[in-house]
Amino acid sequence: MKFLNMKLISVSFFLILFSTGCINVNKNFKNIRDNVLSNFDETFKTELEFALGPSTMHFASAFVKLDKENGDKDLGLMLRQVNRIQIGIYKKADNSSFEKYRSSSLKDLLENDNWIRIVINKEADSVSEVFVKEDDAKLKQMLVVNAETDQMIIVELSGDLDELIAIAIANNGFNIVKKE
User: Fold this and answer.
1) CB 143 within 8 A of CB 156
2) Would you say 130 and 52 are in contact if contact means Cβ atoms under 8 Å apart?
3) The whole model's pTM is what?
4) 19: which residues sit within 8 A by CB, 6+ positions away?
């Protein structure tokens, strides 16, 4: 009987995780990933790809220990503003340049879905792009694509990002990145 209860609890836990969007990245993220990867002549291997959904973000904010020494006064409050994080890390097969990267392809795909590119930085050994998406004049999503000589990282952040930025600035001013 005890084994059956443990099995039922385990199955329920995994069903909850998968049904709330935890662990698996969604279809839109996969489309963005496929578009970005198709803009390179090189082959990439997926190292890590996962998502943290609303329930995971809520639990993370509940367990945050406030570290007053380092000035992270409202880290838990900031985490509660984030509904979803999707992360993909991809290993590049060889170390070639980014001269053939077609940044317009990703921009065109995302503009059709109301994303706005706010940053692009293309160098011989790296490419970085940042896109944002608004809803009712509020910042709701941010997408960061960073490709370097040996790997590419794609991060999508969703939630009340206006409030997240406001909390960060209220607590740290414009010195959000700590100097060491």
Assistant:
1) yes
2) no
3) 0.76
4) none
